[in-house]
Design the sequence.
């Protein structure tokens, strides 16, 4: 997948670019690409993010940050990253002095998101931070404040917002294509393998909810366009399972939104789930799988008919779309559609979910 | 559908019957059929139950009870019920004197279930009562006590327990066909039309939960074979909708079972739902629709494959199976698999669901 990436990323494409914002009077620069430093070279960074700079119009990979010299060497060579643009964590703050780096993409364990996002902002760099944004509301607020103070953008890696089927589902749900939405179900989970930082609470901040359940939560929020006012959650974790010594396994949560929509959601580390359904008064929009890297399937039921809805392959996949969105926002001075406040909104609900499960009561989220 | 019913029901089939219990040493009488009085001639009784005596081996329709003389006349003629076997509610207790009536099938509005079940028991008749069993735990307990005192059987109309796909789903789920069950989702609902007794709380005892959500609850219980220990529910009802002046619209509820299984369930009077899914560590069993009168669809996902599971048409449909089950229990002296205690178990959880939604807290159901 990464073959040819270097030429495509770094080569002079030369030609003028067809730009989303062109007609608005706030065009992006026609030749400049935003330079990203990827911070953390785990599997998501190396397998999903880095290969997809090849499909970007406005983004390029210019620097790497890792605590493992062998990874810096391997990926540095693979992506043609100069030795001067390979950083250890001890060197991290020196990114300030590298004008090729416009933005960082934080792909570290969750508990490090806040620290490195804030240090990046303090180094004058824009920030893309993987979800969950951090491990607490307090951290999210500090990240937003730091980026505001530094005048840098802050965006959270909600890739599904750049994926055509999810974009269509949002449009259809909010337009009442199957009647006004009454209920949403959303399920995400997978049987987790032992031996990962995700199972170590000091690094992850939590279990399935932080890692995969957040997709159910975020979907419920983006499909409604509303913020929940009431949360109830029940956790089920076998603490004798060595995987779950410090983090939760399953957590089911219900959300009530101001319009009356209810969402019934699942998060699991011991069973496979990937889907959501929007149920309106006249039918339903089904997405299963809903948030994989590729292969979304949409089915619409309405008026007694059940039909698949197939979209043409997108010009850019969701990863490239996400990377380029921050780049365009930087170039055009716009606000990301999934700015820090979006990550904060999820984190407020996640904290309420954990509180509801722990205190065995509903938690109100009225402002 | 009812064409030919009379001949089939009342005609002398003559031939000896192949009987389920024959090998057990407690055979049913080879020629006797249990005589039912149907109490309440609404659409469920007249469209679903009464035509299905035609498919029964051990049950026959022998009497009708209704407050509407025109219905007694119409259905009495259609099913060949003698005028002496047609009763008004004022006459109800006279069923005691009719030896043709072995059992009654109570298909009245929910709030009348307890009274008529108890009066039937006091008249010496066995009782089949439609679900929900009643409108409170107290009523359910009184019904059980009355039937116990009278020495009559009490069975609740959980028809899905006699439907082949549901029976298979129970078998597969409990046998761990897709690994030990970790989560269950169950959704039932329909957009209700105004002007029904179901929307009048004094008659119904509650809204969607009593009427249709009970299918989600009962499925979660029969698929696990366990009783929930913790319940959490959130209600969403637009009280300005004329349909929902006295009863709830939507209610989502989560159940935690002793083994750690969680069930995430939906009940709705404003959107269409009919399905459940059993998610194990190795795959899932999907039923959608799960509990229609006809047309169940089962899909099993396991080992990367998604395959439909198709069963041959049953010898008896679920309605005839249900009617004959009580008949066989009467003839053989057995206990129904869905006795009064089953209706009581659902009602205990329904009361906990309502309490959780009203008091905005989790409700413990530990014994």
Sequence:
């Amino acid at each position: 997948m990464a073959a040819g990436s270097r030429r495509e990323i770094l080569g002079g494409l030369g030609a003028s670019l067809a730009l989303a914002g062109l007609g608005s009077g706030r065009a992006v620069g026609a030749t400049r690409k935003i330079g990203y430093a990827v911070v953390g070279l785990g599997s998501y960074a190396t397998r999903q993010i880095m290969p997809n700079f090849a499909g970007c119009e406005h983004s390029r990979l210019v620097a790497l940050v890792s605590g493992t010299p062998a990874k810096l060497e391997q990926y540095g060579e693979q992506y043609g990253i100069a030795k001067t643009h390979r950083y250890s964590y001890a060197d991290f703050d020196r990114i300030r002095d590298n004008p090729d780096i416009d933005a960082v993409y934080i792909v570290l364990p969750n508990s490090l998101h806040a620290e490195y996002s804030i240090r990046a902002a303090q180094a004058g760099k824009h920030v893309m931070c993987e979800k969950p944004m951090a491990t607490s509301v307090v951290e999210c607020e500090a990240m937003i404040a730091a980026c505001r103070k530094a005048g840098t953008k802050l965006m959270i890696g909600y890739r599904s917002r750049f994926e055509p089927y999810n974009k269509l589902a949002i449009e259809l749900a909010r337009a009442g294509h199957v009647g006004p939405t009454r209920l949403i179900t959303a399920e995400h989970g997978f049987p987790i393998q032992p031996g990962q930082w995700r199972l170590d609470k000091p690094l992850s901040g939590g279990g399935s909810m932080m890692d995969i359940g957040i997709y159910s939560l975020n979907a419920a929020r983006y499909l409604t366009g509303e913020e929940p006012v009431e949360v109830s959650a029940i956790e089920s974790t076998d603490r004798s399972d060595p995987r779950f010594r410090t983090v939760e396994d399953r957590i089911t949560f219900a959300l009530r939104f101001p319009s009356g929509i209810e969402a019934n959601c699942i998060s699991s580390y011991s069973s496979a789930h990937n889907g959501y359904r929007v149920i309106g008064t006249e039918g339903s929009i089904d997405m299963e799988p809903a948030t994989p890297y590729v292969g979304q399937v949409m089915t619409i039921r309405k008026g007694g008919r059940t039909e698949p809805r197939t979209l043409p392959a997108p010009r850019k996949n969701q990863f490239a779309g996400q990377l380029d969105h921050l780049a365009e926002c930087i170039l055009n001075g716009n606000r990301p559609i999934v700015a820090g406040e979006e990550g904060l909104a999820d984190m407020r609900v996640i904290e309420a979910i954990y509180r509801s499960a722990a205190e065995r009561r509903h938690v109100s989220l009225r402002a």
User: Anything to note?
Assistant: Confidence is low (pLDDT under 50) at residues 1-29 of chain A.
